[in-house]
Each structure stands twice: as C-alpha cells, then as structure tokens.
Amino acid sequence: MRFAVLGSGSRGNATLIASNDTYVLVDCGFSLRETERRLDRLGVSGKQLSAILVTHEHADHVHGVGLLSRRYDVPVYLSDGTFRGLRKPVDVAGVLAGGQGLQVGGLEIDVVSVAHDALEPTQFVFNDGRRRFGLLTDLGSYCPAVLQSYTGLDALMVESNHCRDMLARGHYPYFLKQRVGGERGHLNNHQAANLVSELGWQGLQHLVLAHLSSKNNLPHLARQCFVDTLGCDPDWLQLADQDSGLDWREIA
User: What is the C-alpha to C-alpha distance for residues 20 and 28, in angstroms, rounded to an integer?
Assistant: First the structure.
C-alpha cells in the first residue's frame, strides 16, 4: 500500500491511497483542472480512480467531487449528513456511517465518526491485508472510540491545524477563533501531538502532519511541538503542503 497527498490546507484537500490497481481518492477540494494536474504529477489519471470518499461537506473538501466523478465515472461514497450538506449535486454510489466498513478493490476501509462542525463528518482507516494507514483530519477533539480505531497503524496522516498562541493573537474575529479552537473545530499542534503520543508512534513507518493553517500555524512550530512531545527525530516527521502536497510514500 502507498499514499500521496494532492494538497492539504484551507484552500483544498485531497489524499490518494493505492494498493495494486486500486486507487481511492479521499476528498477533492480543487477544481477539476487542478485536480487533474495534481493527479498527473503523481502519475495517475482520473480513469484509474476506483472511488472517491468524502469526509464532510466543507468546500475545501468537496469543491471538485461532482465534476471529477462525472468526468471519469468514479463512484462516490459519503455519509447521509454530508450528502444533505452538499451545495452541488453529486451522484452517490453508497452511504457511509461511522463504525461501518467498505471494500473497494484491494482496500478494506473502516469509517470513523469524528467531532467537527459539519453534519456527519467521517474519517478513514485503510487496510490492504498487510498494512494499515490512518487518515485523521478535521476534528476538534477526540474520544476513546477514535483512539481505538487508530491504534496499531503502520502510517498516519494527522491534522495539526493551528498553533493555539497564534490563533489567540491573530486577526480572526472572536467567533471564528472559538469555532476553530473548539471541540468541533480543528486540532492544534499540542492536541495532535498528544493524540499521537496516546496512540503510540514507535511502530509507524510514516507520520505526516496535515491541514496546517496558513494564517495560524507555521511548519516549524508544528514540527517542534511533535518533537518535544514524542521525542522523535525531526527529520522523520513529514508535512503535507497546500501547494505541493506530498509525493508517494510506500508502506512496506
């Protein structure tokens, strides 16, 4: 199994997971043309996509889902709440709910409910029969059920959205600061690092920090927080960028 990131941040999100000839795209927050460009950068065509999974209805995750799905006849899977929250029509192949499983080609996918300010947000854990990859972004807090779902991973991509001090001192209005930093907002650097510490990180081949805010975080602050909390090598940590994403990473 391997994974790559087309881009991660407030201006668009998409993550690609592959196993043999199975390619699953999680979210598509870019225009059709931009998505095709970013897929091409990874050596993948829209024709190769086996499915699109949608985590929630916010524009930076769904902007290009409908057009991409229709252009290449790719089935879309999302929760009922996410479907109800969409502003643009999408043909849905299947409805997901937390605690359920989904099989797409060679990938078994666990659906995990999370706390975020959307109608029915979900995240996903992928299993190819040998290795497990967890995708966990867009949540403001976590519970024992989330921790249980993400134990025993071989690779993890986790949200490290904001520095709590930068958010507090920044120019966002009060209500938006409360929303971002609230229990149904986004994880800050310390929360994300503590989550990974609780999960246990020593068995991970890859740990990727994602969904960093361009206004309320800095890559070196996120990285240092994880280094201080985990005691890991800073060069081992990886960051998914908004513009360049992250190239293919193999999970051996």
Answer: 22
Q: How many CA atoms lie within 13 A of 78 on its CB side?
A: 32
**φ and ψ of 26, to 5 deg:** -100, 115
Angstrom distances, CA of residue 222 to CA of 52, 75, 120, 163, 171: 29, 35, 28, 7, 20
Three-class SS of residue 157? strand
Please write the tens of the pLDDT for every residue from 168-226: 999 999 999 999 999 999 999 999 999 999 999 999 999 999 999 999 999 999 999 99
Sole residue written with tokens 């920090």: 209
Q: What is the DSSP string of 160-200?
A: --B-HHHHHHSSS-HHHHHHHHSTTS--BHHHHHHHHHHH-
Asked if pLDDT for residue 88 goes beyond 90, the answer is no
CA atoms of 195 and 183, how far apart (whole Å): 14
Q: What is the pTM of this model?
A: 0.97
